[in-house]
Each structure stands twice: as C-alpha cells, then as structure tokens.
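Annotated sample (chain length 122).
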Amino acid sequence: MTNKQPYPEEFKIEAVKQITQRGHRAADVSARIGVSQHSLYKWIKVYAMPAHERQAQTSHTEEVRRLKAELKRVTEESDILKKGRRVLCQAVRVRYAFVMQHEQEYSVRRMCKVMQVHPSGY
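Output written by the structure step:
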C-alpha cells in the first residue's frame, strides 16, 4: 500500500496555468509532470477560478456541510422526542428501556441525551 503525499498547491496551480493560459493540451501536461489526466481536470475545476472566488466557494461548501449535519442531528432528536414523549415523564428505568428498544434506529448517545439519562447507565 503506497502512501502518496498530496501535491503542493503551487504545483497544481502551475499545472492548471499551463493548460488554461499557455494553451498546452491536458494529455501533454499530464505526461510531462506524471499526473493522471483525471487529476488535472479536477485541479482545473478548482484552480481555474481566482483565489478569492475559490475561497468563497470553499467556505460555502463547508457551511452547507455543517448545516446538513446539524439538520440531520436536529431531525433525529425531534424524531426521538416524538416517539418518546410519553416516556420523558416516567422513571429513569423506563427511559433506559426506551433507549434499549430503539437502539437499532437511533444513536444510543443521542437518545440518552434527549431522554436526559447518562449513557453509562445504559
């Protein structure tokens, strides 16, 4: 198993410039620098736009990823509360039984948080 180090960003930018600004063919550049054409085309998608646009796009992508994760977490907590609303007012033993019943559907740690019981008691 080989552990390849990623190419430096300057290397990628220079390779993209050879194609976009100097008019070299992607096949020629990939053969010359020893990188697959697929990698070159991915680099072109990323590095062909100016740095400030690239940074803005990256921050938007990270924000979307974070918001999707948060939506998934909140939706799961909401579903747990809907299913376990009768259990919340009962004894701790009943809440742990609810967690045990639904351990295949939801994360045990998240159910314990929503049911206000400690995961180590499960």
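Annotation: Residues 51-83 form the longest helix (33 residues).
Annotation: The chain has six helices and no strands.
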